[in-house]
From TrEMBL:
Top EC class of this enzyme: transferase
GO cellular component, one term: Golgi membrane
UniProt-recorded name of the protein: Polypeptide N-acetylgalactosaminyltransferase
TM regions (residue ranges): 12-34
An example molecular function term from Gene Ontology annotations: metal ion binding
Organism this protein belongs to: Drosophila willistoni
Topology within the bilayer: Single-pass type II membrane protein
Amino acid sequence: MGLPFQKLKKLWLLYLFLLFFAFFMFAISINLYVASIQNTDPQQSHPKPAPKRRSLWPRKNIVAHYIGKGDIFGNMTADDYNINQFKPIENEGADGRPVVVPPRDRFRMQRFFRLNSFNLLASDRIPLNRTLKDYRTPECRDRKYTKNLPNTSVIIVFHNEAWSVLLRTITSVINRSPKHLLKEIILVDDASDRTYLKRQLESYIKVLAVPTRLYRMKERSGLVPARLMGAQHARGDVLTFLDAHCECSRGWLEPLLARIRESRQVVICPVIDIISDDNFSYTKTFENHWGAFNWQLSFRWFSSERKRSTTESSVKDLTAPIATPGMAGGLFAIDRKYFYEMGSYDSEMRVWGGENVEMSFRIWQCGGRIEISPCSHVGHVFRSSTPYTFPGGMSEVLTNNLARAASVWMDDWQYFVMLYTSGLTLGAKDKINVTERVALREKLKCKPFSWYLEHIWPEHFFPAPDRFFGKIIWLDGETECAQAYSRHMKNLPGRALSREWSRAFDEIDNKAAEFTSLIDLERDKCLRPLRDDVPRSSLQPVTVGDCTSHAQTMDMFVITPKGQIMTNDNVCLTYRPPKQGVIKLLKNRNATTSNIMLTQCASEPSQFWSYDMDTQQISHRDTKLCLTLKSATNTRSQKVEKVVLSMQCDFKDITQKWGLIPLPWRL
Ligand code: UDP
Ligand code: MN
């Protein structure tokens, strides 16, 4: 009797064990499967790496609009958009630390990333009042401000912003601003459709410690009309604009207001720190940076040394702001009345883009200043794609906004921008009406764009009347253009006596139309970076290649009368001997062992060149070495590559002869 029962029990246990085991294996395989799908597209599963030093400089890709690829669960539904999954966990993200979303949520995390182009699940785990470090330098921490500062309205406009991100912005403003300086917070909803931004937001802001009002745009208009609406309702002495995904850090407000108190003609920006779109960590950025624009008017950060503005205090004051030719646009403070005196914004600019360009030129040209205060740190979530729609089409809207800014403020340079920005043509001017803005420019008696370039942005890399703009071709002696050029140069009287770039520019200008018409895009070879796919800010070897007709390939150069050879994005031809002191050409590993590079302009001796009209050689001014074209085998790819380096000058050497072929840039 007993035996069968014992046996049965054992079988039972075995059965249970097997069942359990099978279930376990099933779970593992599902997990592996999910992981494998997630890994098929590395960009999707790891939305983006944490910012490295280079990505400190945010870039907006203005041509590529983010179109969701459709994840494995299909498109997001209205339910997905509208749920508010904010579930803060104590100490998550404290002191600006990164958030790690547990593996079981990775799938959802990836799915919800695309809603806002940032990791919503990470943000939803962080309390609204998370702690941040004090990112100020000791000098800034020690600086005392008078009690008597102007107060401010903080204006935040948003379109479909995530709940946790928007409210953390508001909370950080309230918690880290002295109460007597914060008059009010004004929210402007640019026609969002998320349901949690309706009643739920209205009741939430009623109980805040600082008066907070919400206005709504009747229809989707863009950040300019939304900010204008916010400003209209503001009553503070100063308007402080913030994006809807920021976190203000300790002591952020006082330096801004103090600077405006010193001078109401200053538009003052904080240092914009980085909140990772991937894990919401807060990273401090350098204080010593400033901004300007590239040839296509995209905003760029630069870090070369600039003089500080002199304030009331001492000359070598490490808390003094830095003048910046351009502003990023999202975060700044301005005296409220001054904002209107200076023409607020161009209200015809839609959705996103261009308004920071317009404001930068306008403020400087019409007598104001734009500065960055090193003592004010505000974090901003930088993202690499735009999550929202662009009614009217992204390219159309952007080029329209830029054409408005350029045609009102840039004088002759507007044509340059229109000629060399994809999506823009000279015809863009016919589609816009800027009469009111031109009248404003006259009323305010604003200075010309040439003044702005010369005095506010002397480091600029745009063409100018005393500069060369065009292509640098290799004079192989065969193409028609090369022959015409060499002939012209050989016939110039006194050519051997003059080593002045400006003399060369003049002589070339006389023949500009002829040379330009002779250039053969396939046969002529233009000086250009060796690779097209590396970031412009990095060190790039130089080669010659097919000449192209669009600006993106970086085979167009500006040469200053002093001999700096520059191209778009503040990149300059640079003599840079390899560390070992030997030119290895391409024999070993890769091409980076050449001694000629394209890299960030810095006004250093390594970046000044001479031109010999007699021999058509370009030589490095300090070392007297000549630009030479050499062939070499890249041992990695086994390909023969041509690379430009500098070697002993030899006037008979055909690989050292270069011609300057001008391109049109103004009417
Ligand atoms: N924004 C808006 N309407 C728009 C586009 C943007 O209200 O049509 C808001 C957006 O929510 C954000 C601010 O304007 O608070 C700046 O936009 P965004 O952050 O996308 O610009 P970025 O910082 O990427 O330059
Ligand atoms: Mn933003």
